[in-house]
Amino acid sequence: MNHTVVFDRVGNGYTVRFPYDALLVELLKSRVPSYARTWFSAGKYWTVDSAYAAPLAAAFTELGCTVVGVETRTPSACDGWAQHLFRAVGPSRVTAVHRALSKVLHPDVPTGSGVLQRELNDARAELENVA
Fold this sequence. Notes:
Blueprint: E1 4-10, E2 13-17, H1 22-31, E3 37-40, E4 45-49, H2 50-62, E5 66-68, H3 81-89, H4 94-105, H5 114-130
């Protein structure tokens, strides 16, 4: 596939432009949840939250597209389960998910794990530092 996909940084996200191709649209929709993407028909572009830009760019690159304007980093082993979880649930649910998991993971409860609770807390702290 020989399309160029252009990412432009705007606020806390990116605009994404590419020539219409149903496969590219489906790829975008499969990689970016509905709460993290918006289609602007008047300008013929998508906006995506910044957390999804690099993985989306990597997916376009793997498909054979030329990507401009964003690093095509894929999530690495450095990205832990908690970071992936918080990205998946979206910013509006982070507090509720953190609270619910803390009831299970806190080391003071029978099901708790100090390591997992620390990973959960660190991932939330990273999000707060970015915001």
